[in-house]
Amino acid sequence: MTPAAPVTVADAVAALEAAYPPALAHDWDAVGLAVGDPTAPVRRVLVAVDPLPAVIEEAVDGDVDLLVTHHPLLLRGVHAVATTAPKGSAIHRLIRAGTALFTAHTNADAADPGVSDALAAALGVTVERPLAPEGDGTVGIGRIGTLAAPETLEAFAQRVADALPATAWGVRAGGDPTRTVSRVAVSGGAGDSMLHLARAAGVDVYVTADLRHHPATDHLAEPGAPALVDVAHWASEHPWCGQAADVLARAAPGLEITVSTTRTDAWTVGQPSGAVNA
């Protein structure tokens, strides 16, 4: 009996690009295979949000052949890859270990299912359509959907906190805590550029990351505007890791696939603030 051919980096890339077509990526993005030999065999895969040093060390220590991340390592122009620079050091570490690096970024944001579908599923939201549809309307950034039953904003914020990995930032909500929410918009990653779309969609609450003070306060001042739930960027995209792992598991059942639990959120300390009497 002829043994099955080993899964290669090219095989894994093909499965991931079928799920997250590169054509969906924004023109400024850098997606696809960034480091590695397409013909190299793959036995172990690690999926993470960020290709930061701690994640790369996790991959190397685990004898991982392919590291799959959401955020690119080389998003902006790089003029040298010396080990004296963080990105150069990362590239050398991956090459020396024989670990390939693949990225699906804005193409994974827009794909169906994609990053926001994974976030919606984690929150118990049944998806109806994209928040910012593209092309034929089946793909696009963000998602709109409904909860199984209405609940207060305060209860929903707790739902979000319970569903996502813990961060120092935690979860913040803006709006009347007693407001009833049923229809929900979500967008993994930084989403305040789509506040107007959440208002136009008539949802009760919008969940995203990296909300800034002025856009958020201006939004909440609009009559009937959705409440806001703001989470850490990394936490909002972490559910996608499980989705990407499932893509690979279906394409190549023999792979050993692990979702990284290394917290790569930028913020490491969170302290409650208190009023100071003048």
UniProtKB/TrEMBL annotation:
Keywords: Metal-binding. InterPro entries: DUF34/NIF3, DUF34/NIF3_sf. Homohexamer. Belongs to the GTP cyclohydrolase I type 2/NIF3 family. NCBIfam families: YbgI_SA1388 (TIGR00486). This is GTP cyclohydrolase 1 type 2 homolog.
